[in-house]
Amino acid sequence: MQSLELDKPWEQLSSLIDTDNPQQILDFLNSINPADTALAVSRLTVAEQNRLFTLLRPEDAADVIEDISDTQAADIIDDLAPQQAAAILEELDSDHVADLLGELDEDDANAIIEQMATEEAEEARLFLNYAPNTAGGLMVSEYLDYHHDQKVQDVLDDLQANREEYADYDVQYVYVTNDENHLMGVLRMRDLLFPKRTAKLGKLMISNPYRVSADASLDDLRNFFEEHNLFGVPVVDAESRLLGVVMPEDVEEANQQQSTQQFLGLSGIVGGEEFRSMPLLARSGRRLSWLSLNIVLNIIAASVISLYQDTLSAAITLAVFLPMVSDMSGCSGNQAVAVSMRELSLGLVRPKELMRVLTKEASLGVINGLALGILLGLVAYLWKGSPFLGLVVGAALAVNTIVAVSLGGLIPLVLKQAKLDPALVSSPLLTTVTDMCGFFFVLSFASLVIDKL
Description:
Elements: H1 9-19, H2 22-31, H3 34-43, H4 46-55, H5 58-67, H6 70-79, H7 82-89, H8 94-103, H9 106-113, H10 118-128, H11 135-138, E1 144-147, H12 152-161, H13 163-166, E2 173-177, E3 183-188, H14 201-204, E4 206-207, E5 212-213, H15 218-227, E6 233-236, E7 242-246, H16 248-266, H17 280-307, H18 309-314, H19 318-346, H20 354-384, H21 387-417, H22 422-448
Parallel strand pairs: 1-2, 5-6
Antiparallel strand pairs: 2-3, 3-4, 6-7
Helix pairs in contact: 1-3, 5-7, 6-8, 7-9, 8-10, 15-16, 16-22, 17-22, 19-20, 19-21, 19-22, 20-21, 21-22
């Protein structure tokens, strides 16, 4: 069906919900693109969202869930009755189920799992045992595995008998296991087309295939798929039992979500994604938690000025250069933060390599600090005609840049060792330090030559 482009798709969806006609609702949702579906659902009231997912069949509701963000989907699922939510989740891929349940409170998630079929409930509990950005958290349980003593004909018969179920699987490989479900080998689908139908899988399989452990990190998975051009990699436990399969597209999606979380953290949005369709108080809390901390940090920085009130009063021109010194140093420091964050995510630096990072950043800070200090000092001299003013602000900027760049490189590593989120804490912490040090250097240097300013 051709996709429609509507200015306000939520208005039409809202009116269709009022008709209580699920087929008309489904026809409309099928006629618009996924982005418009997400937009329309997000603009509905909570009551309309509940009514929408009550009217739709679980499989159709699951299709809508796949078009919206996990954060919004989890909010909707949380508002539904556990039995109704369970019916919808059972229609989703296993990794998507784990993502949504992971967004819920433990009690709410358990209430939904208890309403799921036994097999799906066991899978959900298994997935929730692993951190979201690990192989265990990203794997899917929709894969094909057979015993090594089975024959090619057995596999072909099973594929034919279960063709409707397997049609939804992203099948590129067949995995071969033993009686204890230990991973023994792998077969490409094409490897089943040409051998004799009586040939056993154990004789045809590629033995000792690539695999990753369930606790492999997102960085490990990204590096694996960069090195190996595969359609998926099996996930095993400590005893090499097959648990699931990780797809490269799921790793890429997780990388994008991690980048989004880091961006939100650096922007002061705490607690995950924020949408304007969320409750007002929830959105306010996500922002205030960082802004409140920032007030405290800025009070600490401003207290430095109070120590040098006499110096500032005697040379009021210094007030013009205080924000320039702190801001320029802060920009230099944030560049170092970004490099450390990137190297940590790629595994190019370890949190304990503080001295290596300090040496690299301090040497760069000396060069950039001198260059920026000379430039700002020259501007101050030409503007006010005072070489001592130029010397004070230039030296302060040079020294503060060295401090900012050095700390900017180190702070993410230190926070990582302390098991804190570097993306959330690095920026406000560095800003406070560069402000405080910048004010201190300008005013303390000025106090030394106050008679000549």
